[in-house]
Amino acid sequence: MNPFIDIRLNHDLPVYQQLCLHIKRKILRGECTNYQELPSRREVAAQLSINPNTVQKAYRTMEEEGYLKTIANVKSVIIVNDALIEKIRRELVDQMLHDFVIQCLETGIDRETLIAMLNEHWHS
Predict the structure, then answer these.
(1) Does residue 6 carry a pLDDT above 90?
(2) Which end of the chain has a smaller Cβ tally under 10 Å, C or N?
(3) At what angle do helices 52-65 and 41-48 cross, to 10 degrees?
(4) CATH class, 15-80 region
């Protein structure tokens, strides 16, 4: 199954980062499995009408981050293990928290009130 089939690209992030983020989210949801083969860079580029170099950059980034492995320049497979899942989870939550805190600071809310509100929502 092609994990890029349902991606919707936007202008918020560079396309290669969106491809990486898409795979990370699929790994967290259990929609990508260990050693699942990804389509070729050219296939993804054609499917999404983007430059193959953009897909190459995404695949290289995923390899550097440890959740993609290219075997003999022939096929690329997803690597999934518990440590990697936890790393991705923390990375994504950290980014969400960073954005959330910036937005909260812009409202002028104090930390104690924010924590109280967060606790209310966490337990509801």
Answers:
(1) no
(2) C
(3) 130
(4) mainly alpha
Neighbouring-strand partners of residue 75: 71
User: CA–CA separation, 93 vs 73, rounded Å?
Assistant: 33
pLDDT at 72 exceeding the cut of 90: no
Interval 86-101: pLDDT, tens? 999 999 999 999 999 9
Q: Residue 31 above 90 pLDDT?
A: yes
Please say whether the beta carbons of 62 and 23 come within 8 A: yes
Domain limits of the chain? 15-80, 84-123
Residue with structure tokens 């190459």?
A: 56
Burial 53-76 (b: 16+ CB within 10 A, else e): ebbebbbeebeebebbeeeeeeeb
